[in-house]
Design goal:
This protein is mainly α. It has one domain. The protein is built from 5 helices and no strands. Helix 3 crosses helix 4 and helix 3 crosses helix 5. The protein is elongated. Bound molecules: zinc ion (ZN).
Length: 109
């Protein structure tokens, strides 16, 4: 993902409107690009501060920390999900192999 693409997706990321693949690409980019990270941080802090104003809570929230935690959390979620999909694929493949062997033995013996 390029910087331009990433910066265009900042608001969608904050509002959780990106697809899983986009979210993953987005987080991977900002983790290695300080320019986009800065941009994300500014937008995230503004959005979160506005939300607190709206809700009338006097914010002492550490937004930067909250952002980093959210990035970590959302990335871990995606990785867990990918792992589950891989496990599922392996299980399906193993079942197919077993099925193939069963068929083979049934056919030839
Ligand atoms: Zn960038």
């Amino acid at each position: 993902m390029t910087c331009q693409e990433t910066q265009r997706k900042i608001m969608s990321f904050i509002d959780r409107r990106l697809s899983k693949a986009e979210t993953q690409g987005f987080i991977e980019h900002v983790s290695s690009c300080s320019e986009c990270m800065d941009e994300l941080e500014i937008n995230y802090i503004m959005t979160a501060a506005m939300r607190e104003l709206d809700e009338g809570v006097e914010g002492e929230t550490d937004f930067k920390k909250a952002l980093l935690e959210e990035l970590d959390e959302r990335y871990e979620e995606l990785e867990l999900e990918n792992e589950r999909i891989n496990l599922l694929l392996i299980a399906v493949f193993a079942l197919m192999l077993v099925g193939l062997f069963a068929f083979f033995f049934w056919f030839f013996f």
